[in-house]
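Quick start: read one record
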Amino acid sequence: MVGEAIATGAITPQPLSIYTPLTSFPGALPSLQSETQSVTLGDLACFTAGFPDVGDPNGHGNRPLIADWGVADFAQAIEQITPLDYNLTPPQPTSSPAPYFYSDWSTGILGLLIANNPNSALPVNAVDNWMTLVTNQWITPLGMNDTYLFNPRPSQSERVVLGYQRGTAQAEVKAGRIHSVKVLNGG
């Protein structure tokens, strides 16, 4: 999606590349922290921006509902974060590119920039604009009839897999090889 948006000029300003920093989008992200100004579209796409995986800083849970934590809240939170190395406990400040760490925040920022005018403040319906873009360009043409952003109709809910939940396992090693794996939490 990012590559296509860059290649087709769907995101402005032009010219655009994976090396374009977030500071190129002052309408959508007007006041980033100095440490975050060097984060690029490529850092977001490769999960090397040093951004958190899920949740919001106001305690609304791992994946808060848009009604509880909307686009304006998300954009304001982005302006306050700085790249961290989440592979360390506790996470430590780092520069961009940060070590790889999956981030819903990174994909969220990319989606909002691609589906909306990044030269203007993100509108209240920015997520709806993203979902319309994704539906029109990928979901419908590929026949992905059980793909949803929000809860599906009750008749379809039995076929739907819920969002990502981190699982954990413990490996038993014998003679230098993995002998067995015990799932501790399936996610």
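The chain has one domain: 2-139.
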